[in-house]
Amino acid sequence: MPRRIDHVAIIVHNLEQALTFYRDTLGITPSEIKEVPTEQVRIAFLPMGGPEGSQLELIEPTPSNASLTKFLTKRGEGLHHLCLQVDDIDSALNDLKAKGAAVLDEQPRMAAEGRAIFLHPKSSNGVLLELLEKVE
Amino acid sequence: MPRRIDHVAIIVHNLEQALTFYRDTLGITPSEIKEVPTEQVRIAFLPMGGPEGSQLELIEPTPSNASLTKFLTKRGEGLHHLCLQVDDIDSALNDLKAKGAAVLDEQPRMAAEGRAIFLHPKSSNGVLLELLEKVE
């Protein structure tokens, strides 16, 4: 059902510090660095592999983001979630519910890149999984 | 320097159980499931996004693999490492050493997909990072 890996999200304390490694040491050029108020995060987008490639996203929670701030305190920086692109998020949501997956959203939410749902890690072997229908 | 995300590795207790979610519920078809004795793991390869796409790898440590078994006991199942493809692993290794990154390998090692080095998560904001030069 999912067609590709859209992005891999890495949670960090501070975007600028993280970019000293990902941009300056590794050499990946960010396409955009922006605040996403609806998600209470700042994101640095690091595209790789051309137009069809998957990208890295460095995510810094803003102070008001209680759940991600708690995650950082408890687990520290590191891999946070994996996002797979689907063609039709409503159909994917219905299918996953019917199969008994632990879907965290009753309806798709607006994410930075389109309409998305999250699955609880207990369904997906410990992985916080996002499914995304891109909206151009 | 890295050209694309090669794979995202998910560590699991049991490949067959994990496939009931990733293959049967999500619908991703494994291209291969094999034991890699040199790494003391079994891997299910789940390619996505066509020839240039990035793939998921489900990794089950064999009982003799002390470090991954310890990781599973301590952290549980979930995202384990991120692999980025480079054109020249020797050049990447020298460059990263010169920049002071915490490289875990003095020389590239043979991995399932080619010649690879790992970076300690302390260099890369908590992410265990693999850099891979593919060998066809």
Greatest chain-chain contact: A-B, 41 and 41 residues
Q: CATH homologous superfamily name of chain A?
A: 2,3-Dihydroxybiphenyl 1,2-Dioxygenase, domain 1
Rg for CA atoms of chain A: 15 Å
Which assembly state applies to the chains in this document?
Answer: homodimer
CATH topology of chain A: 2,3-Dihydroxybiphenyl 1,2-Dioxygenase, domain 1
> Low-confidence parts of chain A, pLDDT < 50 over ≥5 residues?
none
Shape by Cα distribution of chain A: globular
Average of the residue pLDDT scores of chain A: 95
Count of the separate structural domains of chain A: 1
Order of helices and strands of chain A: EHEEEHEHEEE
**CATH class membership of chain A:** Alpha Beta
Structural class estimated from helices and strands of chain A: alpha+beta
Please list the strands of the largest sheet of chain A in the order they lie side by side: 2-3-4-1-5-8-7-6
Query: What is the count of β-strands of chain A?
Result: 8
Question: Per CATH, which architecture of chain A?
Answer: Roll
| Gap between N and C termini of chain A | 20 Å
Strand content of chain A is 35-45%
Proportion of helical residues of chain A: 10-25%
Largest sheet of chain A: 8 strands, mixed
Q: Number of helix segments of chain A? A: 3
